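Deviations from the work plan: none for this task. Representative record:
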Amino acid sequence: MDHSPQKRMLVGALSTLGALGALTFSASALAQEIDHAKAAIEFEKFRAEMEDSNPSELFELKGEELWKAKRGPKNVSLAESCDLGQGIGKIEGAYVQMPRYFADADAVMDAERRIVWCMVEKQGFKFDDIAKKPFATDTFTPDATNLVTYVAAHSKNMKIAVPLKDPKVKEAWEIGKEMAAYRAGPYDFSCNTCHGTDGKRIRMQDLPNLATAAGAIKGVQGWPGYRMTGGIQLTHQWRMTDCFRQQRFPAPKYTSDAIAYLLTYMIGNANGQVYKGPGIKR
Amino acid sequence: MTKKIILAAMAALTALPATSVLADADYRAKAIAVIKKDFVPRGQADLDRLAEDGVHAICNRTGNNPPAEIAKVLEGDQMADVKWPADGKLMGNWKKGESLAQSGRGFTWSDKPGLPVGGNCYNCHQINPKETSYGTIGPSLLHFGKLRGNTPEIQKYVYGKIFNAKAYNLCSEMPRFGRVEALKPEQIKDLVALLLDPESPVNK
């Protein structure tokens, strides 16, 4: 799907912001601090304007086609076979009520994991083929990314409601909490090194405290999202994977328990907060 | 030797009454099992990075708040590991230190393996007042030398702290840049100068 007009627009607007930044960069330290804050505000305004023509909608439309089409070796549609926790084919509010436990898979699954499971179990696609290229590149957007964008769009403006009362989900949350605290690797980092305290930053990047509802929703909001850097559509699974890259860890397996449990911890902590739908990320 | 101390420390922890520190042990064991089964090597990041060393083991099991006696022993272990420069000089070139402090590269699976890697300093610290894009995970180091002087003791402290922060505070968030050979002694000396040289903008 061609999204180059949007991409050009984004790039143009971003270079304007960049030029503004460059002009003021020689000013005093205090002035620069203020400029950083201004740039952040400008970016937010720009993003708000973009919401009217959110590039995520293009992926949502593609996802809708994929959801309804008979596909795969078994030639069935997800609409007639896939249960995201609300009944077969039902997608309203499904995204904000995941991760949840699915008895048929005997696993706690986030939205992307569940969609991929349905593609494999119901449509007959091979998991290894899907996992080979799980995330978008300049020239390729995975079906699962389009599908999860479509599903997420049908939870827009709904409250997050991960079913933590389910003992299986609660256990996933507890394990995820421990994983978030696990320090290892060459730099001794855990998730909590950056995301366990209020009011911290890396450079100018604010770091949400994922242990709080207000922080956790910041980690959830905007995913899946159109990333201006690179101009591609990326999912929450991708974001978790990239966090491990920055943590200097090896790579988590795509749609694994590891990611599902961490997402259960993060999204569960955001329960009661309003999810605004697929977004735009810097 | 180190292993013995760690085992003793672990035994001491286990012997503690069932406090909140240990209440999550079951979930922690499950978390470690998940971590072991659900990661794959990528680029330079091999699976051995998932293993806990003695410091990780204690910090992970005490919420980064180990009993003082255990911390003291293990900090001593880490201190014994610090390699001091052969020539005895601890202050290098602050300008090189500044450019090293700027770089956040290194050790991720998308980085090219091998040196040189960045100091990552501005990711977490305020340092040079001219650089306003700084993180706040660590304390501000603005005017570090101006406030403390640059006596041999201070130089030794700063060098040692950058080489292995865990020698001073066992569960410090700061990486052990020297111990893991992210930074060579020469590079650490340049960072010492960035913080302590009177000519460094940090101290203007």
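The CA atoms of residues 136 and 142 of chain A lie 6 Å apart.
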